[in-house]
Fold Helix-turn-helix domain-containing protein.
Amino acid sequence: DVFMTWNKSENELKKVLDNANTWHPNIKLEYKIGKSLPFLDILLTNINGTLSTSVYHKPAAEPYIVPFISDHPRHVFENIVQTSLRRAIKYSSTFQLFNDERRYIKSTFLYNGYPSSFIDKIFRKFFSGYISSRSFLPFIDNEDQFLHMRIALSGQPSRQQSQVEMRIASLTTNNEHLIEELEKKQEVPIQEKKKPNEFQNKLIIHYTHEKRFNTRKRDLHRIFQETFANTQIIETKLIVGNRNQKSTMKELIRKCPRQAILKNKANPNGNHKKNRHPQLNQKINQKDNQI
């Protein structure tokens, strides 16, 4: 997929694209021309020469996500909400478009059974990670906060950093103090040395051993060689192993007792228990002797 803007007439653009379709018989370009077009999952709109972007939703797509009543872990629902908000901030070019997408996100989650209190809690938690606000409302107050979050999430330089970089571009050799100012403004992250991955360029496959799978290893290696011959994937080392199947005896019998049973419990009152009912025990012994 290719996206482009064109400042000339629409007829001239069609001539260029039709001419490009004649370059190769197996390559045909299908194009769409308009002031509002979807590109992947972004909707681009030309408003009097200003390009506006927002999240694109297919008209035929239903607002269905993972239901709240499903058996997924709790953090899965939280991640879905945060991912939707993160995409809305990065794709929305204006504060108004973001608010429209935020309302759409909340209505979608309400439609799929998410409690309103849970949605508002995740909204506040997500926004508090980027901006400091005393508001109890689960949304951004003004456009400055939105721009701050958008810059932080998209990795764009801030307005102050852009001004400093423009000043640095026009520097002469005598203006060294501005270079020091730029170095103070920008923090260069220190990349840690990554340990070598011992599983790199290795494909490991495990399966449970059965008698009918005696030729499994040989068959997998043969299929791998035939499928990926003369490709870069053939350089990957294929490792095929099997796990022993547990017998019924190992599944049903616990050979080692629990550690708590093996330990001797000390009697805090002494080595011998006191006889609290000596007369009763004496009568029981007499009856046993008579029997």
